[in-house]
Amino acid sequence: MTTAHPHIKPIRNKLTAAAAACALLGAAGTLSACATSAAAAPSHASPAVLRAALRGDLSRFLAARRTADHLSAVSLRVAFPGSRPAIALAAGTTRYDGGSPVTTGELWQIGSNTKAFTSVIVLQLEAEGKLSISDPIGKWLPQYPAWRHITIRQLLDMTSRIPDYFGQPAFLHAFAADQQTRFTAARLVSYVAGLPLGPAGYHYTNTDYILAQMIIEKVTHDSYASQLTRRITGPLRLRSTCLAPYTCPASDATRMATAYFDMAGYPPSVLGKAVPPLALTYAQGAGGIVSSLADLTTWERALYSGKLLPARQQHQLESLVSQATGKPIRRTTPADPAGYGLGVAQATSPQTGTFWYYQGQTFGNRVLYLYLPRSGMTVTLAVNSAVNVATDNDLAHLADSVYQTLQQAGAARTG
Predict the structure, then answer these.
(1) Which terminus of the chain is more solvent-facing, meaning fewer CB atoms within 10 Å of its CB: N or C?
(2) What confidence tens digit (pLDDT) does each residue in 239-251 have?
(3) 355 contacts 371 by C-beta, under 8 angstroms
């Protein structure tokens, strides 16, 4: 993250404008700039050679980052359009001190990747005539008069100026005191209610998506978890995707690699302890989903193919503001490479063209995807650790290495 606040905001989208330009795109503005040491597959490599090269990328990442990031597991899924089989790989173990080998069926806390699910539900409600994203908050949540003129769109594109509850010491202390605390949405918002709005522009804040969740519940007279199941996970048959802990079977915890509180900025009382796998009421519609990489691949393709939304709402989903200026932009460019839509993010480089991405982070997991619309390929990565990616976004560097390997193998079309 780029703020100087001493606490980490674990479920934010970590790839801000600076990070997208310097980490995901590489210091020189290319996806492969950070991966020059990778032993990539030769051009037009066989499937077996390509898998071996990608497995080498994962193994090198684990060797380099295991101690620094206190991680033991990394998983990759590369999905192609059409009938070509996906590549699914995993490396490492389920615990930092050993455990069984991690599998490709592992479940992960996907963090702020949840935000796109929330945006899609809101946009579906708009398509049904039940709300408009131009509606002010005051129409649906009159209990917050100071925010009454802020629109739903401003919540979804992060231009609301409402502070982030994750940056509040009172929230962090409450979580550290009892990690199994069942936070309500209203309680999460209460940590910033009464605080002044920030300056105009783009500012990442999880509070926006908790408020969006509350609007969904007000409009539908139903829970967010129920709407998520009825509208998205059920129709897409995402059988390994749930909102923790509300719709997740307790057995899901056994399918998750152990993650640990092990980063400067976390409350000292939790450092070194295991992260509860399904205790995500602190995240909810801003970052509370647990999923597999296979399910996420299905979701990502549906998200960008227009399968979930009518054309008008799909256009709104992908309408961008610059992460640098907060101003609306038609698309990202190499000069202004990072844009934010409604729960989705876009970047552009000369080598890859325009692509969509998101990196979500919880207290113990990170999940990053890239979707390249020209080729229809998705790359999704997950690890069982959290870091301050404003200073060391190593998962973005791993994405660079994977992309370079795919490109050199002839599996990634650029442009």
Answers:
(1) C
(2) 999 999 999 999 9
(3) yes
Instruction: Give me the pLDDT at residue 271, please.
Output: 80
Average of per-residue pLDDT values in the chain: 88
pLDDT digits (tens, 9 = 90+) for 354-398: 999 999 999 999 999 999 998 899 999 999 998 876 667 899 999
**Which domains does the chain show, CATH number per domain?**
17-73+90-358+392-408 (3.40.710.10)
> What is the pLDDT averaged over residues 148-162?
98
| Token pair in block for residue 125 | 């409600």
pLDDT at 413: 62
Residues whose CB is less than 8 angstroms from the CB of residue 113 and which lie 6 or more positions away in sequence, other chains included: 287, 289, 296, 358, 360, 367, 369
Mention every residue, 6+ apart, whose C-beta is less than 8 A from residue 64: 394
Confidence of residue 60 (pLDDT cuts 50, 70, 90): very high
